[in-house]
Structures are given as C-alpha cells and as structure tokens.
Amino acid sequence: MEDTDRARYIDGLRTLAMPNEIWYDATLYVRRPGSPGVPDRRIQVDARTSVKLERHGAPRLSPTGVRAEVERHRRDAAKSAAETRFRELGLGAVMDLPDATVTIDVVPL
Amino acid sequence: MEDTERARYIDGLRTLAAVLEANPDIPLPLAGRVSSRMTMMFLSDATAREQMAAAARAFPCTWTKRVSGKNEEFFDLRGTVGALNVELTALRDAVCERVVVGTTEVTEDEVVTEAVTRPVTKTVDVVEWRCSPLLAPRAAELPAG
Description:
Chain A is α+β, with helices and mostly antiparallel strands.
C-alpha cells in the first residue's frame, strides 16, 4: 500500500468517526458600492447566527479527495442554511437591496 | 451496545488514526482494506431497510450492491471511504421483495448412503508456546552481569 493510500485509509477512519451533527458559526456581511472616489460601504455589520448540519445527505463522491469535498459541501450547505436563518431573522430586506453584495462566512464550531 | 461503548469505539477510531499518522512504520490494520471490510449490520426486520438507507446516505461514497451468503441470504452495499472499505449488510428478505418470475430445473446431489466413520488412535505432538514479554529486551540485549 502506498503512502497516499495510507493517508486515505487514515482519512477514512476519521470520516467513520465523524460526529453526526456539525455546528457552524455564520456571519453575514452586506456591502453596497460606493460612488467614484468613495469606497464600498458596509451597511450591515456582523449579523451572526449558528446553524446545525446533519451528516445525512452527504454527496456521492469519488474515493479520492473525500475529506476536502465533504468539507466544501458542508460549508456550502451551512451557508445556504445560514442565509435561510438570516432571512428568518428579518434581514432579507437588507440582503435584497439593489446593488448589494451579500457575503456569508461560515466557520465550524 | 450502549451509547457509552459506541462513544468509546468512535474515540478508538480517532486514536487509531492519530497513532497511524504519527508512526509511519506501524503497518495499517487489515480491517477495512485489501479483502477486508468494516461491516455494519442491520438485523432489525422492521426497520432494517430504513436504517440501511439512512446509513448509505450518511457515508460520502458510492455504493455497489451485491448479495452474499451460502444461500444468498444477505444484501450488501459496498463502498470505499478514503482507502477504507466499508460494507452495510442486512438480511435480504428484510430489504428486498421476493418475486417469483418463473421456474427452472436444477440438479442437486442427494445423499444415498451416509458417510461411515470409525475411531482410530494416533500419536501427536504435545505443544506449548513460550512467548517472552514483547516489550522487554531480548536476553542477548540485556547488560552482562
């Protein structure tokens, strides 16, 4: 077995042991473009929430790069869940402002 | 299996991964590689299908189906997580529907005369295994005196 297979075997053990729930801390940033000579401005600062993901629904993946793909998928799912949560918190009007740039950062807790 | 034992098993997996990663000279376990698989069994008739489906969704891998057992009594899903071979197994009649779609003729061996045996006496070696403590130095490595 090659070293790469060894690393993948160890990844497999960790995947097998993964917790069934993963919590993410999500932060919402909304910016609107500035005028010429005026930088973009943030109009909503640090709206934060936490979202929980279940392991169910993990994507079908090729055996290679499983961990990175799973983490990317979960971040995307966490962002989607966080956007729903922010809208439930009444921030939809701000997020949908014309020309607004919406960014949601998620960090595993 | 109680939750505490489950938690300890999962801790064991994490510890095993950490030890293997930190000690490249330790060979990988046979479990889960080559022809071996980490097998999870779903033996509840009432909920085996649902539990197996939920487990299949939880694992980030592609599954292949097969039937196994002397009488093909098991239904298996096989996949690979990283380089770890995993298998989900249930009794086939718990997750599959048996449908008669036709008939065919087969030939079987029928026992006509039972095998005849008799007791015989042989001389065989009497053996004991002497294994010195593995972590202790060998006798040749001990300081003289």
